[in-house]
Amino acid sequence: MDRRRFLTAAGAGVAGLMAGCSAESTDDGSTDTGSGSTDTPASGGTATETDGTATADGTVAGTASGGTPLLRVGTYPSFVDAPSSSPGAWLKERFESEFDAELQWFAPESSMDYFLQRRQQGVSIDTDLFLGLAPENLVRADRAVGDGDSLFTSVDTADLSNAGAIVDDYRFDPQERAIPVGASYISLVYNQNTLDERSVEAPTTFDDLASAPYENGLLVPNPQNSETGLEFMFWTIDQFGEDGYLDYWSDLMGNGTRILQDWGTAYDAYSNDEAPMVVSFSTDQVYANRYDQDMARHQVGFLNDSGYAYLEGAAPFAGTDKLGLATEFIDFVLRPEVQAEIAQRNVALPAVDNAELPDEYYDFVYEPEEIVSFGYDELMGNVEPWLSDWSRQIATQ
């Protein structure tokens, strides 16, 4: 399987600084490149949209010309407006060239929170599906809606021609509402030059990371505001358990680890040499190679030979009157050639095992020996208490 031709690094490797559509917005309004990252603060409702007009409440007005069916697709802002190679415009052009439909992107700054808040307020969502749904987003939505209801509706996978090629490790919704469309891995990105100056090797275990040689060495996105930081927290829970992860975080903080607002803020600080390591994504070198950056500053480390899977899915909203067209769009997104294009533009990984990417792409992608990921059932009922305990004990240090 071509997609699985990844080199494997035991504790030190490569991978990337996600460019393109998975970038996340920073506090100053700029957008940083990032792989598979939908990190955005859970506030605000400003929308980025194409082929429509954003109204005062953030909804999208506008109709397709000539009576052509209009498919409104929600996503996170950087999927459509990152400064390098967002896949949004390419997907729109390619989809409209093959289907008798018009695709309209809608990307509120608060991402999934925007749609969940409208549902809770009893206001129409006016969007047909969401692309970029993380497992914890789905769990949070289900818990918020409650009473056996759902913000999303299931897809008949028999209508998805390439569904059989979806990587099993990337499936996260037992009800098949969210269909995997992309992936990456949470990892360390580190500056080999700085570690050489410290006369230390890259850390290979979680315990290494909290030890004296790496004092004041790590930047972490805040799990309260950042998908990247939240999934790093999940990774530590997998390693140390519910009874041990807070002690580990206390060790990290005691060793000078800094927690910053979100992924963009943390990566900016890392790029400005404020620390030699940052929690980021394992596709970092793809971006670095694309822009001729110093590879020594873009090394990747997998702790305990593992990496947490950052997953993205596409799910139709319940109540859409275009479920058939939404399913056709997901089927289109899952095509091997479309998956390959999205992965390259998003500096991420395909969700299917039959997407063929250039050999050079695989030269700069690493995959952990062990894939760590909490499934739907593990996350249901646990995300809020885990994060609440972390916030109470760690965020106040």
UniProtKB/TrEMBL annotation:
Origin superkingdom: Archaea
A GO term, aspect molecular function: thiamine binding
PROSITE patterns: PROKAR_LIPOPROTEIN
Biased composition (Low complexity): 31-67
Gene3D superfamilies: Periplasmic binding protein-like II
UniProt region (Disordered), positions on chain: 22-67
Keywords: Signal
Xref: NCBIfam families: sfuA (TIGR01254)
Protein name: ThiB subfamily ABC transporter periplasmic binding protein
Taxonomic lineage from the root: Archaea, Methanobacteriati, Methanobacteriota, Stenosarchaea group, Halobacteria
